[in-house]
Design goal:
Elements (H helix, E strand, L loop, with lengths): L25 E17 L4 E18 L11 E19 L4 E12 L3 H4 L3 E3 L6 E3 L7 E12 L6 E12 L2 E6 L6 E5 L2 E14 H4 L5 H4 L1 E15 L5 E2 L3 E4 L4 E2 L7 E14 L2 E12 L6
Antiparallel strand pairs: 1-2, 2-3, 3-4, 4-7, 5-6, 7-8, 8-11, 9-10, 9-14, 11-12, 12-15, 12-16, 13-14, 16-17
């Protein structure tokens, strides 16, 4: 097509930009917080207790328009306002210079993203299913527990084993609405649980093999492996604002997006060719188990 074919005369092509209301929006998240922290050494620093109490006030707003709203029509708004008291504490038991264990608890918040909480309708991929946010979403609360053992063979080496659990209240899950359009959306469910174990390993290969070889002394091996079990209960009677009731194939199932296992491995080789010129060669490998999409 040449420029001569563009114009307003008969037989010519023309184009114009149309107004799409959902492209016109304003989103903001304001978080105001204050905290008090303290540390106590117990039994000549054999035990160390760290505690924090944080007060957090948040205001999440999105001003938006829907398809059909005119250019000069007033903005609609979704708003999530909350105030939370978020305590956390960890107790460290120093067994020796190279061994220690930790017991910790924390309370955290999971907030919906702007598109999850606003009734925009959009497609994640070309010709894919439509997704629409749910303005009825609220913030979720997480209770996190950890019991960890750490061993430090040297300053740059680590071996650790961590047992963890999470109790989730009002977690946000992606679901499909029972309608002819098969629209995806998001809901808060009542609760969910996460139980798992994590192994972390970072060792110098020369030290690990008790070898004085210079090449092996410049090599290190890292591993991070996690296995976890997740469970959530979904209530089919829930509604999504403006769309209707939801439909699920399994009322009890794993959390969407959560893999039963995750493994990361890295191998590093450091070599100093001349003084002050250091090169690091790294090979990495990652794998994870099957994840539920929705």
């Amino acid at each position: 097509m040449s420029e001569n074919n563009l114009g307003t005369d008969a037989g010519q092509f023309t184009y114009r930009e149309t107004y799409y209301p959902s492209n016109n929006y304003d989103a903001n998240l304001l978080i105001h917080a204050g905290y008090v922290t303290g540390r106590w050494d117990i039994l000549h620093s054999t035990f160390q207790l760290n505690a924090v109490v944080r007060l957090e006030v948040s205001d999440q707003n999105t001003d938006y328009k829907l398809q059909g709203d005119r250019f000069k029509a007033p903005f609609r708004q979704t708003s999530i306002e909350d105030a939370f008291l978020l305590p956390s504490a960890n107790l460290k038991y120093i067994i020796s210079d190279k061994h220690q264990s930790l017991l910790s608890y924390s309370r955290t918040i999971s907030r919906p993203s702007f598109v999850e909480a606003t009734p925009f309708r959009y497609q994640e991929t070309f010709a894919g299913f439509e997704v629409q946010g749910n303005p009825l979403l609220i913030n979720g609360i997480n209770h996190n527990f950890d019991l960890k053992y750490e061993y430090y063979p040297s300053a740059n080496q680590l071996m650790s084993l961590n047992l963890f659990a999470k109790l989730l209240k009002n977690p946000i899950e992606k679901i499909i609405v029972a309608s002819s359009s098969s629209t995806y959306s998001y809901i808060n469910t009542e609760s969910a649980t996460v139980l798992g174990v994590e192994l972390e390993f970072n060792r110098n290969i020369g030290d690990l093999l008790n070898s004085g070889n210079e090449i092996l002394a410049n090599m290190s091996l890292g591993l991070n492996a996690t296995y976890m079990h997740t469970n959530i209960s979904i209530d089919n009677a829930q509604n999504v604002a403006g769309l209707g009731t939801i439909t699920v194939t399994n009322a009890n199932r794993p959390l969407s997006g959560a893999s039963p296992y995750i493994v990361n491995v890295d191998w590093n080789y450091r070599h100093e060719w001349v003084e002050d010129i250091l090169t690091t060669l790294t090979l990495t490998y990652n794998t994870f188990g099957r994840r539920l999409y929705t």
